[in-house]
Amino acid sequence: MKILLTGAAGFIGMTTTLKLLARGDTVVGLDNLNDYYSVQLKRDRLARLTPHPNFRFVQLDVADRPGIEKLFADGGFDRVIHLAAQAGVRYSLVNPHAYVDSNVVGFMNILEGCRHARVQHLVYASSSSVYGGNTRMPFSEHDSVDHPVSMYAATKKANELMAHTYSHLFGLPTTGLRFFTVYGPWGRPDMALFLFTKAILEGRPIDVFNHGNMRRDFTYVDDIVEGVIRVTDRVAAPDPDYRSDTPDPGTSHAPFRVFNIGNHQPVPLLDFIAAIEDALGRKAEKNLLPLQDGDVPATYADVDALTRWVGFAPGTDIRTGIGRFVEWYRGYYKV
């Protein structure tokens, strides 16, 4: 297939693109290479993709409406995997406009492009953050997600609503994937694993929020990518059992689906840190802090629906995944 993948210089985007290329797909990768974190890291990810004859890179912002319109008009894309977004819960408290520009306006442009180009299937990144103030565990797609606690979460919830509208009005098949704390080699520098590893190796204390009483459904990147590609291959379809008098938030009468994609095995933050310490052979000095605004104490994914849909079965344990990240980190930064 010919696939447009946005956010190609990102962590998940690069890994997904490599797997698509390896199986014979043609990929047009889009990224704006913004400076939210190291542009050099993004360029180094791209350097792993650009030598491939079936890959073409386009530097473009999804909020650039004329640019996106032209890209779709000329592209002839069969399917779209939309991973580009302004990421980060905490940064959304500082610069909320960036989230509206990229995650709302940008997503609108992608939807319009898919509609007019008659794309067969749009798969897009949502987030576990949409569960916001929910406390019933594990988080289920069948539960309401009407109480976000950050602007980032609100924009991801908005994406799901916008996608449903296009599925309903125009018959555009859309599938949203709620990612749960993805980690692994080439990961983002603003994520906990990267921050902790860097600080421990430099002999600095690490900031541990909620006094360490956090649990996260850490999911290894290769498991995530396998799920993304399986979902891309299975086009969203109307749910024959959907009932409008008892609506299910995860399905619809339209070709619309939303799935959790996580490890289904939440890990206490202090156990996560212990695994990093073991991989590094060094102990961390912990700076215990209260829970930050916009953050949640726990995430835990119910992935039964995704398992039934595409056979999703994450298989990478936390110590193996962290070991692979540390090996990459030491090599990339020559530590």
Which features does this protein show?
7-stranded parallel β-sheet; alpha/beta; 335 residues; globular
Topology of helices and strands:
Blueprint: E1 2-6, H1 11-22, E2 26-31, H2 39-47, E3 55-59, H3 65-75, E4 79-82, H4 96-117, E5 121-127, H5 151-170, E6 174-179, E7 182-183, H6 192-201, E8 206-208, E9 215-216, E10 219-220, H7 221-233, E11 256-261, E12 267-268, H8 269-280, E13 286-288, H9 304-310, H10 318-332
Parallel strand pairs: 1-2, 1-4, 2-3, 4-5, 5-6, 6-11, 7-10, 8-13
Antiparallel strand pairs: 9-12
Helix pairs in contact: 1-7, 3-4, 4-5, 6-8, 8-10
Description of the structure:
- The protein is an alpha/beta fold and 335 residues long.
- 39% of the residues lie in helices and 16% in strands.
- The chain has 10 helices and 13 strands.
- The chain has helices at residues 11-22, 39-47, 65-75, 96-117, 151-170, 192-201, 221-233, 269-280, 304-310, 318-332, and strands spanning 2-6, 26-31, 55-59, 79-82, 121-127, 174-179, 182-183, 206-208, 215-216, 219-220, 256-261, 267-268, 286-288.
- The strands form 4 sheets. It has a 7-stranded parallel β-sheet with strand order 3-2-1-4-5-6-11, with helices on both faces.
- Helix 5 (151-170) links the parallel strand 5 (121-127) and strand 6 (174-179).
- Helix 1 packs across helix 7 (221-233), helix 3 packs parallel to helix 4 (96-117) and helix 8 (269-280) packs across helix 10 (318-332).
